[in-house]
Amino acid sequence: MTQEDQFEKLLAFFKALADENRLKIIGLLASRSYTVEDLADALGLGASTTSHHLAKLAKAGLVSARTDGHYYIYSLQTDVLKDMSRQMLQEDELPKLSAPVSEDVFEQKVLATFLDSEGRIKAFPMQEKKYLVILRHVVKSFEMGKRYTEKQVSETLAAFNEDFALLRRDLVDYKFMAREGGGREYWRLE
Amino acid sequence: MTQEDQFEKLLAFFKALADENRLKIIGLLASRSYTVEDLADALGLGASTTSHHLAKLAKAGLVSARTDGHYYIYSLQTDVLKDMSRQMLQEDELPKLSAPVSEDVFEQKVLATFLDSEGRIKAFPMQEKKYLVILRHVVKSFEMGKRYTEKQVSETLAAFNEDFALLRRDLVDYKFMAREGGGREYWRLE
DNA sequence: GAATCAATTCGATAAACATCAATATGTATT
DNA sequence: AATACATATTGATGTTTATCGAATTGATTC
């Protein structure tokens, strides 16, 4: 299982138990098996709602049902419960939870937030760190080693946002591009 | 600690961890301590949102903060994590989760659902079991041993719902009240 | 004490979720 | 086959919750 799967599994596990009535269901099933209706009566919920909760618990692998006559008998599946709690006790397992947090994910999130479907900049991020993500993305439109006139640079940047002058200035200020001849020639730095 | 406190604590624990970003925070803090801003950057969230998440985790006792200069340094509190996972491993602890499930709780829930803030019946439950809770509640407006005219009964019931005739009939049908003289006198039965 | 910086709180918005009632599905019993 | 019954699914509604940006608080430094 990949680490991201593991993360998703753990998240689903906690979400499954993060509800008052589902937690009570686990408590009830810990003593004995129940039909859906019996659980619904014990909890004071409708049968449909109870069924919905059981479906969530089953999806997380916490309960299972066997059919018996008219009824579905639900019982507790202690394996997942034990696996998860064991994982929480091992401290060296916890850092793996942050594996999904990578620069790639962060950058994709920023780009998804501030670019529209055509790749234009909807808004400029307030946070500098996010703005740098935008600039790093924008500068990829220029080839390394190639020289550009100011007009060429402006036209390329205008495809991202009408305020191409701001982009042009910040690309230089943040050292993504350099210029010489008072702005006659531009080139990409990183 | 009472069992209900224990239940609330466990529920708060699961709710605290039932969020993608809060789970990632736990993962990050498992490696080292972070400031709020660093966490916000790593997660691609605003500082206020991150602060909100940390507050939830802190309330569940999962993280703690110490102040250092301008910064608040958040770190993981492994005790609660260990306590909770240990509890899940002990099967005899689980049935206690269902302790909050009592008739009282059920009745209160039904009443909260179907009565408005002034105690009037918003809607009539479809489920008979819940309707009985309503009737049992309504009949408390009448004193045991006292006789009432139909007009008195109707006026008292009208305070609960405009369909006082339905309530009057069902109170009799379900044996909460009795009448004689073809409806000239009513009295409470249970 | 004024200015600065991080963190929290507040107010608003949008998405997720629990719940219900009604309908559909599917299994047993006649 | 037909009916009856328990469960699942659907559609609708109200509540909760995650998120943001702005304003405020709190603490530090000059």
List the helices and strands and how they pair.
The structure is a homodimer of 190-residue chains.
Chain A: H1 3-17, H2 20-31, E1 34-35, H3 36-43, H4 47-59, E2 63-68, E3 71-76, H5 78-89, H6 103-114, H7 128-138, E4 147-148, H8 150-158, H9 164-173, E5 177-180, E6 185-188
Antiparallel strand pairs in A: 1-3, 2-3, 4-6, 5-6
The structure holds a DNA duplex (30 and 30 nucleotides).
Core attributes:
homodimer, 190 residues, alpha+beta, Arc Repressor Mutant, subunit A, 2 domains, three-stranded antiparallel sheet, 9 helices, 6 strands, elongated, DNA-binding
In short:
Chain A is α+β, with helices and mostly antiparallel strands. The two termini of chain A are 37 Å apart.
Structure commentary:
The structure is a homodimer of 190-residue chains. The first copy, chain A, is built from nine helices and six strands. With 190 residues, chain A is α+β, with helices and mostly antiparallel strands. Chain A folds into two domains: 3-97, Winged helix-like DNA-binding domain superfamily/Winged helix DNA-binding domain (Arc Repressor Mutant, subunit A), CATH 1.10.10.10; 103-188, Arc Repressor Mutant, subunit A. In chain A, strands 1-3-2 form a three-stranded antiparallel sheet. The relative contact order of chain A is 0.08. The model of chain A has no long low-confidence stretch (mean pLDDT 84). Chains A and B meet through helix 1, helix 2, helix 3, helix 5 and helix 6 of A and helix 1, helix 2, helix 3, helix 5 and helix 6 of B. The structure holds a DNA duplex (30 and 30 nucleotides).
